[in-house]
Design goal:
The protein is mainly α and 354 residues long. The chain is built from 13 helices and 6 strands. The chain is globular.
């Protein structure tokens, strides 16, 4: 063996050894508990602590965030950027996902939450950028503005001027980036936080069936709102209970925390009058009930809403499925959110049937 061949063999052996070490470390990093890997970076400490008390704490970080090679060059470049920022001291504690990463998380959520994803896909909250920002009727009646992104595009990284052109009531309108046309404006992370505090699901303790009901885990709201301006997630339980009015009368509003979430986007005017702007706070016969009493949480469907509470007839003996409301008739003047007894009984309150 010549001197050149010996040097070449040594170089190849060294590189092969380094490759084995890197593959071994890569395998260890992906298999080891997060407190031995991810937590070694202090920038991730806050996220780790939230994850450790969340309903997802039994799921390893890489199941959602992937590995340095899971998405090819893209993920490798992203991880290398994190390392560079760390050692260049160009780091920060507030690590947040880009819109591209948020949209990718939709597919990750889908892997475990298939029923919820399918329901979301069939409902109004899966609407895309084109349908929201290129609606001729809406844009010609109300000029597009930055506040549109508060509910439609919470994770969009630009402003209204970088998204749509022209920003006026005179069209035609088009998206500056045509690739955004079919992207959803209300992805999963709008109402859900992966690291939100919670308890993993578990089976019921069946022993002692007489008091099984009292030993169920207490319910709590897992949903909330991503605030675009503050760049933070707020659990529905910390959102303020809305104060709503029907004329001069203060309404009885449900205590359901999820209704507080709904009203953040389906909001009234500045005077908090029920039924103004996009508000749907119930008045009339349905005053005091929650949005979730009728609407499914992910699909928004209310197809079974009436039969959930009314066994065929109302308190006054009428068939609820054929009453003249928007539930049964699209053009009915009696909106199901605001219908009162007098709407169906010539302005008079009927006598309840025993």
């Amino acid at each position: 063996m010549t001197r050149f061949q010996k040097r070449l063999a040594i170089i190849l052996a060294v590189h092969f050894g380094l490759l084995l070490v890197m593959l071994g470390y890569y395998s260890y990093w992906n298999a080891a508990p997060p407190d031995r890997t991810c937590l070694s970076c202090h920038e991730i400490e806050d996220s780790y602590n939230m994850w450790a008390s969340s309903a997802h704490r039994d799921i390893n970080c890489i199941e959602c965030h992937g590995t340095a090679l899971s998405s090819g060059i893209h993920s490798l470049r992203e991880k290398m950027r994190m390392v560079f920022r760390h050692y260049s001291r160009d780091f920060y504690d507030d690590i947040s996902l880009s819109e591209e990463q948020v949209l990718a998380m939709n597919q990750t959520c889908r892997e475990c939450h298939q029923a919820e994803y399918s329901a979301w896909l069939s409902g109004g909250h899966s609407v895309d950028y084109a349908h929201i920002f290129l609606d001729d009727d809406q844009n010609s009646n109300e000029q597009l503005n930055h506040d549109c992104l508060r509910c439609h595009g919470m994770f969009y990284e630009g402003d209204i001027y970088s998204l749509v052109e022209p920003v006026s009531t005179a069209g035609p309108w088009h998206l500056k980036d045509p690739g955004k046309a079919r992207q959803p404006v209300i992805p999963c992370l709008t109402c859900h936080s992966i690291h939100e505090e919670g308890i993993p699901k578990s089976g019921i303790e069946y022993a002692g069936s007489d008091d099984m009901h009292y030993r169920r885990m207490p319910g709590y709201s897992k949903a909330g709102l991503y605030d675009r301006n503050e760049r933070m997630f707020l659990n529905a339980s910390v959102l303020p209970k809305p104060v709503m009015w029907d004329g001069d009368r203060k309404l009885n509003v449900s205590d359901d925390p999820l209704m507080r979430l709904c009203i953040q986007c389906h909001a009234p005017d500045v005077w908090h009058q029920a039924g103004t702007m996009d508000d749907r706070t119930p008045t009339g016969v349905h005053e005091g009930i929650s949005c979730l009493a009728c609407h499914s949480s992910h699909s928004n469907s209310a197809v079974n809403a009436c039969v959930n509470c009314h066994p065929g007839t109302s308190n006054c003996g009428l068939d609820v499925m054929t009453m003249n409301t928007t539930y049964a008739f699209k053009d009915s003047p009696n909106n199901i959110h605001f219908v009162s007894c007098g709407d169906c009984h010539d302005g008079e309150r009927p006598v309840s049937i025993p």
